[in-house]
Amino acid sequence: MDACFGKTVGDASFIDERLQRITSRQNAKVKQLRQMFHRAAPNQKGEVAIEGMHLVEEAIRSGLRPRAVFFSESARERAHKLIPQLPSKTETLRLPDEVFSSAVPTETPQGVAASVSVRAFTLDDVLRSQPALIVIAAGVQDPGNLGTIARSAEAFGATGLLLAEGTVSPWNWKAVRASAGSMFRLPLVKVELHSAVDELKPRAIRVLATSSHKGTSIRDVDWKDPVALVIGNEGSGLPKDVLAKADKTIFIPQSPTVESLNAGIAASIILYEAARQRERP
Question: What number is the average pLDDT over the span 1-6?
Fold first, then answer.
């Protein structure tokens, strides 16, 4: 166990000494954290900002390396719980509550935020696991929906999530929070939709486009084959040219009085059906 002058990493005094105190909103590290949240995309070092005790712990559990972890003054107990889990090279900083609140986007912050290095994936990484079960987010603009899609994709065995043009950043803080950590583990790749579809078809991966009420019921689709599921915009759905390029249009059987389900719920139901079929002997 690491020690410093006879103090172990679990000692409260050691933890307090490790916390670097920052008092100004204009401090360079505080400004950088604020900018990372605003940018909602990895910086040149491949780092993103996350907020919340659970998400920081999920990042660590997922094998990501926090470069710096920020604690508010009122989150001292959380600092004592989290710091022993951190690599010795991770910076740990203590901020007054009002300075911490100025750097994070949540209205009721939990007092813990971090900058972490995230993994970069390619389409080949997504295709490596077979049979492929790929989710393509095509114009999903609500970060909560995208986070739900990522969480369900991981839960039901998807091999990756492709992010087509018009889709919100997966590192938007609301998307990360809704994913409950799945964004840290699921292979994520930004793509141009038509190019991605053109690349999938020669690999014998069927492209299935979602519709609210038209096409083939998801119960009648053979989900054991390699497939790519395209989820469209929450309001307008998928463009006609995308529907035309798909191998099949599918829908979730539901009451005709309901116009449509939101993108996150629809993707979750479809992925559950895929997982259910794939678990059959």
Answer: 43
Q: How far apart are CA 133 and CA 201, in angstroms?
A: 13
Going from N- to C-terminal start, the domains of the chain cover 3-117, 123-278
| pLDDT attached to residue 242 | 86
- Tens digits of per-residue pLDDT, 123-139? 999 998 889 999 999 99
Please state which architecture CATH assigns to domain 123-278.
Answer: 3-Layer(aba) Sandwich (3.40)
Q: What is the DSSP track for 150-183?
A: HHHHHHTT-SEEEE-TTPPPTTSHHHHHHHTTHH
Report if pTM > 0.85: yes
Give the neighbor-by-neighbor strand order of the sheet with 248-251.
188-190, 160-163, 133-137, 227-231, 206-210, 248-251, 216-217
Q: What is the average per-residue pLDDT within 239-243?
A: 86
Judge if 3-117 and 123-278 fold alike in CATH terms. Answer: no
CATH of domain 3-117: 3.30.1330.30
